[in-house]
Amino acid sequence: MRRLPVRLRRAGLPYLLLLPALLLELLVHLVPMVIGVAMSFKELTHLFLGNWGAAPWKALGNYRISVDVHAPVGAALLHSFWVTCVFSVLAVGLCWLLGTAAAVFLQEDFRGRGLLRAVFLTPYALPVYAAVITWAFMFQRDNGLVNHVLHDQLHLTDGRPFWLLGDNSFYALLAVAVWKTWPFAFLVVMAALQNIPKDLYEAAALDGAGRLRQLRRITLPALRPVNQVLVLVLFLWTFNDFNTPYVLFGKAAPKAADLLSVHIYQASFATWNFGTGSAMSVLLLLFLLVVTAGYLLATSRGRKHADG
Amino acid sequence: MADLTARTPPPTARRRSPTAGARSAAARRRSPNAPPRSFLWARRIFLTALTGFVLLPVYVMLSSSLKPLSDVSGAFHWLPSELTVRPYLDIWRTVPLVRYFTNSLIVAGSATVCSVVIAVFAAYAVSRYRFRGKRLFTVTVLSTQMFPGILFLLPLFLIYVNIGNATGLALYGSRGGLILTYLTFSLPFSIWMLAGYFASVPRELDEAAYVDGCGALGALFRIVVPAALPGIVAVAVYAFMTAWGEVLFASVMTNDTTRTLSIGLQGYSTQNDVYWNQVMAASLVVSVPVVAGFLLLQRYLVAGLTAGAVK
Prior knowledge:
The structure holds two protein chains of two kinds. By secondary structure, chain A is mainly α. Chain A has one domain: MetI-like fold (Orthogonal Bundle). Chain A is built from twelve helices and no strands. In chain A, helix 3 crosses helix 7, helix 3 packs antiparallel against helix 9 and helix 4 packs across helix 7. Chain A is globular and about 75 Å long. Chain B is mainly alpha-helical. Helices cover 74% and strands 0% of the residues of chain B. Chain B contains 15 helices and no strands. In chain B, helix 6 crosses helix 12. Chains A and B meet through helix 1, helix 3, helix 4, helix 5 and helix 6 of A and helix 3, helix 6, helix 7, helix 8 and helix 9 of B.
C-alpha cells in the first residue's frame, strides 16, 4: 500500500472504505436474491430443503401456478394482491392526512407543543409487537375496549362483533397500521415546514389571506417535493408490512385482511412449498419496481412541467 | 409509558414568565397573522382527538398491566377493580422472559454495532469521494430498502439450512444467523442516513486535518466522526429500535433457546387462557428502553430521517 503511487492510492481508497459494506451487501442482498430467483424455477418442497440443488427443474411452472387466477393458488394470490392494494392506498392516504394536519397545527408555537410532539411520536417508538399485541387485546370480542365502547357504552353495534375475524378485520388492521405509521408522515412534514420562510405567511396575511388560503397557496405547494418522496416511502412500507398483520392475527390472517407478505409467508411455510413462494416474491418485487419507476417518472415529469 | 412521556422535557418548551400571557396577547394584537378563533378551536379539537387516538393503547397497556387476571378476562373496564403489581412479578416466571430479553439485546445490539461500524466507512466514501460506480452503489443501497423482507427470508432460510447440512455449522436457529439477516434492513438505512449526516460536516474541516498531516482515516476518526457523533448515535438508536421490533425473521430463524422478545411474548397465551395482564406488563417492560432512547434522541433522528427522505 505504502509503495503504490499517491494517485493510485487515492483512487483505491474509496473502494477500500466500501469493501466491508460491499461484501456484506453481497452476502445479505445479492446472493439471496440470485438464489431466490433460482428457487422460483424449481419444484422446491420439504423433500429438497436440505439439498436444494437436487430439486427438479420446473421452468416457469411456479409462475404459471401463481398467476392462474382460475385455480385456488392464483385466485388466493390475486385476492391478497387486491386487499393489499386497497389497504395500502387507504393507509397511505390516512397517514398523510393525519401527519400533515398535525404538523400544520403544530407549526406555530403554543403551550404544550413540545409535549404533544413527543406524544405523537410514541407509536413510532414503541416496538411493533408490543403495540400491536395491545391493539389485538383491544379488539378482543368479549374483553376488549373497542366492543366495550361501541356496544356497552355507546350502544352503536348489535351485539359484540368480531374484529379479528371476518370482514371487520380489514378495518381493524387499517386502524392499527395508521396508528403506527402516521407519526412518520408527521415527522417528515414537520421538518419540511421548518424550511418555509415565515415572511411568506406574514406577507400573505397582510394581503388578507386567511389560514385556509395560506395552507392552499403556501404550505401545500412548498410541501410538494417532500410529499412525493413521503408517499412513495409510506406506500412501500405498508405494502411490504409483515409485522402488523402477523402479530394482530397470527400465522394465517383472515381473508379480508390477507396482506401479501403474510400470504407468501403462509404459502411457503405452511405447505413447505418454497418454489411457489419464491415465484410470488419475485412477482411482488417486479410489481413494486414497476410502480416505483412509474411513480418516479410521473412525479419528475410533473416537477419539470412545474419548473417551466 | 404515559408517565415517561410526561417526564421527558418538551424540546421546544419555553420558560414562561408571569407576564408572558400579557406579552403574547399584546404581540398577537400587533401581528398581522394572529390565529383567528375558528383556527384555534379547530386546532384544539383535532389535537385532542388525535392525542386520544395515540394514547389509547398506551393507557390500555398501563391500566391492564395493573389489573388482576379476573379483570382482564371479563368485560373491559376503564379502571382496575384493584391495583396490583403481581403481573410485573409473574411475567418473569410464566415465560423465560430474561432469556428472551438477553437474546433480543444480543441480536439487536450486535446488528446495530455491525451495521453502524461498516456504514461509517461506506458513508464516508460516499460523502467525500467521487469514484466510478458510486451512483450504482447508492442506488443499490437505496433500492434494497424497498424490497419486502419476505424476498430475503426464503433464500436466507434455505442457505442456512443447506450450510448447516453441508458443514454442520448451525446458522439456522442461531443468534449469529439472525444477526446476519437483520443486516438486510439495518445496513442500507445506516449507510443512507450516515451519508446524509457526514455530508453536513463541512469539508474544510477534513482539509484542515490533511494539512495537519492526517490521512483519510485520521480525518474520518478525528474530525468527521466526532462532528457527526449525535447523528451516529441517532442512527444507532434507530437501527436498534428496528431490530428490537423485528418479527418476520425472528419468527423463522429462531428456536427455543434463541427466541427473541418479539416471538417470546406469544408465550403468555396458552390453550385455555391468555394472561392479558401479563402480556401488557411485559409489553410495557420491553417498550421502556427503546421509547426512552427514542424520545431522548428524537431531535437528531428527525434530522437524519428527513435528510434521507428529502434529498
